[in-house]
UniProtKB/TrEMBL annotation:
Gene designation: Timeless
Lineage summary: Eukaryota, Metazoa, Chordata, Craniata, Vertebrata
Main localization, broad class: nucleus
Coiled coil: none
Basic and acidic residues biased stretches: 1172-1206, 1240-1255
Domain Timeless N-terminal: 79-338
Keywords: Cell cycle, Nucleus
Protein known as: Protein timeless homolog isoform X1
Amino acid sequence: MSNPDLPHEWAKNAGYVCGGYRSLRILGLCLQDYLARRFHLLSPLPVLLALGLWCVLDTMNCELLATCSALGYLEGDIYHKEPDCLESVKDLIRYLRHEDESRDVRRQLGAAQILQSDLLPILTQHRQDKPLFDAVIRLMVNLTQPALLCFGSVPKDPSVRHHFLQVLTHLQTYKEAFASEKTFGVLSETLYELLQLGWEDRQEEDNLLIERILLLVRNILHVPADLEQEKRIDDDASIHDRLLWAIHLSGMDDLLLFLSSSSAEQQWSLHVLEIVSLMFRDQNPEQLAGVGQGRLAQERSTDMAELEVLRQREMAEKRTRALQRSNRHSRFGGSYIVQGLKSIGERDVIFHKGLHNLRNYSSDLGKQPRRVPKRRQAAQELSVHRRSALNVRLFLRDFCSEFLENCYNPLMGAVKDHLLRERAQQHDETYYMWALAFFMAFNRAASFRPGFVSETLSVRTFHFVEQNLTNYYEMMLTDRKEAASWARRMHLALKAYQELLATVNEMDICPDEAVRESSRIIKNNIFYMMEYRELFLALFRKFDERFHPRSFLRDLVETTHLFLKMLERFCRSRGNLMVQNKRKKRKKKKKVQDQGVAPGNVSHSPGELETLWPALEEQLLRCAQDPEFRTDSIIPFDAASEVPVEEQRVEAMVRIQDSLLAGQAPQALGLLRSAREVWPEGNVFGSPVTSPGEEMQLLKQILLAPLPRQQEPIEGDADEEEEEEEEEEEELQVVQVSEKEFNFLDYLKRFACSTIVRAYVLLLRSYRQNSAHTNHCVAKMLHRLAHDLGMEALLFQLSLFCLFNQLLSDPAAGAYKELVTFAKYILGKFFALAAVNQKAFVELLFWKNTAVVREMTQGYGSVDSGSSNHRAAAWSPEEEAQLQELYLAHKDVEGQDVVGTILAHLKTVPRTRRQVIHHLVQMGLADSVKDFQRKGTQIVLWTEDQELELQRLYEEFQGSDDVLGHIMKNITAKRSRARIVDKLLALGLVSERRQLYKKRRKKLAPSCMPNGDASLKGSWQEDPEEEEEHLPEEESEEEEEEDLEAEPVQGSSFLSAGNLGQSLRQEGLSAPLLWLQNCLIRAADDRQEGGCSQAIPLVPLTEENEDAMENGQFQHLLRKLGIRPPIPGQETFWRIPAKWSSTQLRRVAISLNQQEEEEREEEPELHPGAPVEHHPSEEHSPSEEHSPSEEHRPSEEHSPSEEHRPSKEHRAKALRALLSARKKKAGRVSPEVTSEEETSGDKEWKRVSKKRELLDSDEEGAEGRGQAPELRTPVLHKKKRFQIQDDDDDD
């Protein structure tokens, strides 16, 4: 059995015995041979000792034990592998793949020390066997997986937690075994050889091996240190330090630097960044930057201050012990009665100790402290900073310096690209933010060079960190089970944000002017945006001691201090600072009263309406018989309304009725015909072939019908409207962005609340453990609130005064001079106020807000008296009786809003909804305010049935024009548009919000229709809204708004634009109008040639054009044309909409010359100066054809007006096109004239893109080529041309 030539003999016997016989002697012999072979024991061990060790390995599976023994054996320093060593390694990989939830295979292999005794020797001695080497690396990567990755999280079950700790212990032994230069030398050599291969020579197996080596190094560095077992002090080499030193000696650090800086190896950037972060896990960047430079003066002063504090406390303790010494024996200390201090009963307290201990007497002595529940305990600190050995710190310092100089910018750029393109794993952005904070702090502490960290020194980086910080904060509030993990990620993001601010602050004192200018630009952008200013307020208000450790609060206080200091200095240097301001404006839903009349309208009796009808009928008949009567400019619906177009029929009837009542017969008839085209279904507004007589009867019915009208909101006090708006959860919210002048004190007042003050007091309690800078930040903020804002009473709190008492009685109070001075200042203010206001002592028991502070200092009732003019009037007995009567009459009606009905019937002083509800509760008619909550406001979670219903409704209405509107109309549980849109996105039914936009019908211009037909065609087009990324809190109800400015004027709207342009010419604005027309024509040419589809700004370069852009009438013309005005606070110039095509742009340019065309309409000949162009269908010889460049090549002689020639040519083309369209529509176009004019029109289409040419069918092309030369009229060309344009618009 002990024959070394039979490697499996002992294993076979052991397996045979374990599977069948239980012979103790055979088992002992098997184990004796196994131990002799495995642990190199030349002399046989006793059988009992073998059986004792078997008790340790009795849980090991026999097959697994046999597989491990088949790997090989170590003889001296030489490892002899077995012939089937490779198969055994693969078997172990297979066993690990199929292990159970308790990780039994992993625990058994760790207990058998397979990695230390077999895998590492195979790795170092059999590197030339590539298949075996690859398999061993693969097995080691699996064995060294983090315990958290194996179990998912720290188990709460005791048995599973025991297994977790076992795996963690094995990983710590693996880390100690890897701390050798020989092991990392083999890994470094292999990695170096693989990186020498070019991309064309590198195989897929080589890339896998590179990744596995990096993962192995990552896994080993990730193993946490066992501080209790190591018991290492600072400046002593721990296991982690020995591992770092082995990496340095093997040259692995140089390979990491190469991978970081090489542009060809960017696919390993995330692995490298993770390894680097684990290398510097326990290091402090400021301390690391000062290694080897001697002790700095600041460090010496800090150490001296700490020693002085310790010396003062020691002397105070000595004095206390000296006073406690008594001449008498301790047995004769005596007992004393403390007069005035009652015990549990009516007697005074009896004190059984010496008088010198009376100062420390407390009623809490001897009591058991109250046990704090686990869910309420404060979060524990996880990060531990220690000082490594000096040689390790020197190596790490040099590594940091070289990394910053050569690798930081390319590596961080590659990682940021992976993160933005979502090519990284979940939560990989935390390594990015750690590297940002660590290396920027090292660069700032070592030798500040902004160029080394320029990749992360931008506003985009601020935005990236702020977005992740906000996301972590929101996830911590929603994912309560993983709140601690989200809080740690939140702390990392906060550290990165703090270091970004510190670096920008350091740039302010840089001697380079360019660096200071860059800092000013960054600060200008950061202080302008509202999100960056609101960030700290939100973090303070949502600070939770259960999830955030004390270090998070310390970093938050220091970051806020730095931000306020930079903001205050920036405001002083600028004088006045304009910042962005966002305000939520709530628009109430319009309430419809059945059979009601709007308050502004006068009700008419049926008799009065009958008397009005004859006069209206005559006007309507004249309009109906007028052949020139057009309805193109009349739109029967409100495109900007949140009500879908399909639901605006009643409103259209109301508009028709209002027009009839106002005597506007043409307007009423036009609305009726337009509404018939928009809503043809059901013949509500008549059939398409309705006769004039039928139209008259339909209009009469609309006039006499009692249509429901909208109730106009009653104007009231501003405060009452705000109270009512806050109660409406289903209201539409519009975030208005504007600019305002920034006031630093107003911003500072936002911090004057009890939540923020409580967080500062919590940090101040540990003033002894805080650094001097942290205590300064706390004192500075409290001083700002108390002195700068004059709110000393905000700090009048008993817990804070107890802390002041502890501070003032501290023997080392001299080391905290700033805190002592501030405490005396607050106490002095309190006693001065207490002399006037005796209630101040009671106010000490409560945290206060600004209103209470004002009452304490200015007198109670001052807040109410100061705002008495905004308070609601008292309820009279008559009003209360009416309120009670209305409530009792309507409270049992199902499906009715009781409060809304009461408000509609109250005939006294206008009341808000909140006032009615609160008074009902005060009168005892209702139990609680919650009884009046509206249905649908409390629905938050979606049940499975509701999700299935939503999916069914989406599939049912997916092909309709308004998917979201139909879903909201038919869904059972009523929800807001925002909730439904978010759920559709979450279920994956839609990929983007744009798919849920309503599709609108828009009328085509008469010139777009063949044969002059002006009837409405069903041209469907999606809404052009785009989401604004800078408004995260904006509700998606506003996504339904119609962007009317982006629609060009069409049809008869050209006439009004032309009239407006003629009036502007009479005022002397001809040159700005010509400039505007040239801009539109140039934009049309650019879009026709290059397909550009972005909004084009109108930038006036001359003083005359600039004055015109500020003219109100000129701006009215721009709005009439559909040019979009600038967004306040974001844009400066008016913009040509991105959705306009080249044809639409030319059509708008034509409308500016409407009046001039009418004057020239009677002249059959064109302007002599206009160039004559030939029809493209005319036959020319190749020698006679000219290219466009030759056709428009300028001559050497130019007239003074030569530079305006392109605009005149475009203007002439536009005039001819409009003239041709009008004459053709009126039927007055002769074939010769039409041919000549259409030839000039076709010239404009000579440079059509290939995409549009491919849209034409071959039949149409052949037909056009065959007919155009004979008829000399390009009618088919024009029709086909407009069809192509419409298809492009729809696309």
